[in-house]
Design goal:
single chain; 788 residues; alpha/beta; five-stranded parallel β-sheet; five-stranded mixed β-sheet
């Protein structure tokens, strides 16, 4: 048994409705379902979804106060006023700066940019920076990707006579900031048809309005910021990203091209994943470790040599960022496991001196993925007593509203329902933790703490073809509200499962169906599952489909997202190699080694003291506290009933059969009837017969072992054929004829041999079928099957 990481939510659709959609879109029923879930149900919607070149962006003047903004900016340009674009330090922020600044300079504006330092200034506008700008002669300041919640700073700007235009897309307060104009897609007075623009999208709309036409040559930057900020990839955002990816492939920004080349990424084949996994993390990296100016400089430069220099600086920062994230994540997990599991910790609020506030958002995301609950991670400055950090949330918990309800504890904060940044005094961390946990208890149900993964549908292996995947790729670019389709393959078997990668942390396998269809699959970061999947396992898998191209061969491939096995599993570790692998894996609280012989237990603990080994003679020796997920039978029981009882009692998820003790425990073969007759004849001829005195001569004459002689003697004693006193055997006068099988000693030996034959020499399928019956026996003995 393997439990899934996520709660799988299989999408369902009304068949008749989908047939109508399929007819309207002239597509297959499965594709109709995929389109319908993306709110594409008419021919016109499909045309816009698939053919971005036919459509233009919305009129920017539909945004409230756009006219005011354009008028004031053109006045500044005409008057030669100094304009400052006030940005943010993430990928959305630096692309926003670049897009607007390029448009302003195209119009002849005297314009520069300013990005606050994450560590010394924090997120968004601040009074000191605005005062400095005013003192430096700035006549007009335009915020991009920030400013909507900075009411006090905007009031300060008004006091010092600095005109400000706010462009933002973050959560707004009930009151709009005092400014010349506020451009926001959710402005209460807006008529704009699409509310989910990224910060760079809003900046692009302003650039469009200023220039009088779309600056489509900048759409590669708009695509980068939009994908990086995880906004809804629907409607106008989809249009931006579709067109932007084409520019990224054909004629990209010079700085982006230098950065991609350094990362060994082919922009000619760029997708949204190129942005999400290659470009955006690097643009974000510099602002996470220090000033973000190099990222904006990279996107603004027209000098190829400068682009290479800046790209190298940014790539080095990304490598450093990766190492820091790994270290903080490990420390945070250790802190959670030691202090914050259990009731009262529905929201993790973690902080530590020395944690870099610039990367804690990434750490928070990883912790949410691991623990399925809201997480805030803070870097603490022991000198100032200030904590700065980021939070990430789960779908059911609106993080921004939760923080807003605790605004009195926060020096500053801002963000979205699923992500936020904040600053607070260290002394207020416990109160924030308690308040957020209380809010979570009051508003969330237990099922909200299980990450949900939406699955498009269950499909057979046979249906996964190159043609089908080609149809799926038409749904790209994928992202928020248009996720890459995840499909389920149910009850399949895996063949050739193995670890791959330099550090063997990934999994490669072949998914096979009853009909013999085969689909290659890979699971990144799931290498530990290789040892947990048995040959007979029926596996349910969910994953994303793609085309793997290698040596001019194109084959369908599934990237495993999650898997589960809903039944117990048997692992045959009777061979030395498999047994040594199991021992090398070490011991955990989930594994109990069952030893029926003291020598076996001693040998195991000598080899690895960390193993949990239980010596068992009878079923009652197996204590309740030893009930576990993995039961390993290390050696041979005296009575298989004990093994049977343990199997029935534990209902273990995984059973490992080794059944060979440290010093070997296979019993000798059964003496033949001729051997019994020969031994009886010797006793009758030489009685009374001193057994031990004659043992060596007896064994040599008949090629017996002392154990065989001892066994035959005990059978005769059991049948009352003979008795022994002081080591001397004397035959009895027995009139009644008795068979060897009447002896309990003989039966036990026969039973033991059959049991060993079953456990040591049966093939895997036979063992599985036998233990399957044990698992389902509900305590009813099936010992008779052993000796059949």
């Amino acid at each position: 048994m393997i439990h899934s990481k996520y709660k799988w939510q299989l999408e369902t659709a009304d068949e008749k409705a989908m047939e109508q959609v399929a007819q309207a879109l002239q597509c297959t029923l499965p594709m109709a379902e995929l389109y319908a879930r993306r709110k594409v149900t008419t021919a016109g919607q499909l045309d816009k979804f698939l053919h971005p070149d036919k459509y233009e962006a919305y009129d920017p003047f539909l945004l409230a106060e756009m006219e005011l903004a354009v008028t004031r900016i053109k006045q500044a340009i005409d008057a030669g006023e100094q304009i400052l674009v006030f940005g943010d330090y993430d990928a959305d922020g630096v692309t926003s700066v670049t897009v607007l600044l390029k448009a302003l300079r195209k119009l002849g504006a005297e314009a520069e940019f300013y990005i606050p330092n994450r560590f010394t200034e924090g997120y968004g506008p601040n009074k000191a920076a605005f005062t400095q700008a005013k003192d430096a002669g700035v006549g007009l300041l335009i915020t991009v990707d920030n400013g909507i919640a900075a009411l006090d700073v905007m009031a300060h700007a008004k006091e010092i006579g600095l005109d400000v235009i706010v462009t933002d897309h973050h959560e707004a307060k009930e009151t709009m900031p005092e400014a010349v104009a506020v451009i926001h897609p959710r402005h209460p007075e807006t008529n704009y048809p699409f509310p989910d623009l990224a910060g760079v999208g809003v900046a692009y709309k302003l650039a469009h309005a200023l220039l009088g036409e779309e600056p489509t040559e900048l759409l590669d930057l708009v695509a980068i910021g939009t994908v990086a900020d995880l906004v809804s990839l629907t409607d106008e955002n989809r249009l931006f990203v579709q067109k932007g990816l084409r520019i990224l492939r054909d004629n990209p920004n010079i700085g982006v091209a230098a950065l991609a080349k350094l990362a060994s990424s082919k922009l000619s084949e760029a997708t949204e994943e190129t942005i999400g996994f290659t470009i955006a993390p690097r643009l974000n990296a510099v602002g996470r470790l220090g000033p973000a100016d190099p990222a904006a400089d990279l996107l603004l430069t027209e000098d190829p040599e400068e682009a290479v220099f800046l790209a190298e600086e940014i790539d080095e920062a990304n490598k450093e960022r990766q190492a820091i994230v790994t270290q903080i994540t490990e420390e945070a997990i250790a802190m959670i496991e030691a202090e914050f599991l259990g009731d009262g910790n529905e929201v993790f609020v973690l902080g530590k001196a020395g944690w870099n506030p610039g990367v804690v958002g990434i750490v928070a995301s990883r912790l949410v993925d691991r623990y399925a609950r809201p997480v805030i991670v803070l870097g603490i400055d022991d000198v100032t007593g200030i904590a700065k950090g980021s939070g990430r949330s789960i779908e059911a918990f609106h993080l921004y509203k939760a923080l807003d309800a605790n605004h009195e504890l926060l020096t500053a904060f801002g963000g979205h329902p699923m992500a936020a940044g904040m600053t607070l005094n260290v002394a207020d961390i416990p109160a924030l933790r308690a308040n957020l946990a209380k809010r979570a208890r009051e508003t969330l149900a237990p099922e909200d703490f299980v990450s949900v993964l939406r699955v498009e549908e269950a499909i057979p292996v046979e249906s996964v073809t190159l043609e089908f995947i080609g149809q799926l790729n038409k749904l790209a670019p994928f992202g928020t509200d248009n996720p890459k389709p995840v499909f389920a393959l149910e009850g399949v078997k895996l063949d050739g499962t193995k670890r791959i990668g330099a550090d063997k942390t990934h999994l490669k396998t072949a998914i096979t169906s009853e009909s013999g269809a085969v689909l290659d699959a890979v699971g990144f970061g799931t290498g530990e599952l290789v040892e947990k999947i048995s040959p007979m396992a029926r596996v349910d898998i969910i994953g994303e489909l793609s085309i793997n191209e290698w040596n001019n061969m194109r084959k369908p491939q599934l990237r495993i997202v999650d898997l589960k096995i809903g039944h117990w599993q048997l692992f045959d570790v009777r061979s030395r190699g498999e047994w040594e692998k199991l021992l090398q894996a070490g011991g955990t609280s989930d594994k109990v080694f069952i030893c029926f012989q003291q020598a076996t237990r001693d040998a195991l603990l000598a080899a690895n003291p960390a193993l949990i080994c239980a010596q068992v003679k009878t079923a009652t020796d197996f204590a309740d506290e030893l009930v576990t997920k993995d039961v390993i039978f290390a050696d041979m029981p005296e009575d298989v009933a004990v093994l049977e009882a343990i199997v029935a009692k534990t209902q273990a998820q995984r059973i490992y059969l080794h059944v060979a003790s440290a010093n070997g425990n296979a019993i000798a073969s059964m003496p033949s009837r001729q051997h019994f007759a020969q031994f009886y004849a010797v006793l009758k001829k030489h009685q009374p017969f001193p057994l031990q005195q004659n043992m060596a001569r007896l064994c040599k004459q008949f090629s017996w072992t002392s154990e065989q002689v001892d066994f035959m003697s005990r059978v005769f004693f059991d049948l009352n054929f003979a008795t022994m006193e002081d080591g001397v055997v004397q035959l009895n006068d027995v009139q009644e004829k008795r068979n060897l099988e009447d002896s309990q000693v003989y039966k036990v030996r026969e039973y033991r041999m059959a049991m060993e034959q079953k456990l040591l020499y049966s093939n895997y399928n036979e063992l599985y079928a036998w233990i399957e019956k044990l698992m389902n026996s509900k305590g009813n003995s099936i010992l008779e099957e052993i000796v059949q």
